[in-house]
Amino acid sequence: MSKAQAAKFISLEGIEGVGKSTNMDYLASLLTKYKKDFIRTREPGGTHIAEAIRHILLQTKDEVLLPKTEILLLYAGRYQHVNHVIKPALENNQWVLCDRFLDATLAYQGGGRQQPLASILQLNDWVLGDFKPNYTIILDAPVEVALTRIQKRKNLDRFEKEDISFFTRIRNQYLALAEREPDRFRIVDASQNLHAVHEQLASIMHEIMQTE
Fold first, then answer.
1. Which end of the chain is more exposed for a tag (fewer CB within 10 A), N or C?
2. Where along the chain is ATP bound (predicted)?
3. What is the pLDDT of residues 67-85, one digit of tens each?
4. What is the CATH class of 3-210?
């Protein structure tokens, strides 16, 4: 199978409240429109073990979950996910659409938790090597706009309960990552109405399809 014909791995990123779930649905509908065989998955999660890790990461417990513990748990789940789900799908010529991947750790734990990026990248190199998405779409919106949206939710997880400075650092880190790798990243203005966001996503997917 030539590189041009190979299935692609696309991740969707962004802070809380930018509409990832709704827009994952739309991206899935676009892949269906383009008649691509694909799987849809998420992080943390994607396998039974990784979903158990997700539960630990998102639920508030009496025991404080330390930043380094978060990172190690994320990469334990990610290793399971990549080797049991993502790589097998790509090898089977299935496209992969993933809600968050490695850039979420760089943004949330590196930016938000202010953990050393060099240490995270060193761990990433050990666990994943050079494996990364072909394309990463960031749904970007001002922090104030995004947080206003999540305030309507009844049950907030550990991350959604963080303050505005935490999410500001995350957003800034996402934008910095995109600036470093312009060939991989695409930024969508998620502060616009849903129709406008979908138009941007459709344009990006059309561009991706033209690379085949």
1. N
2. 14-21
3. 999 999 999 999 999 999 9
4. alpha beta
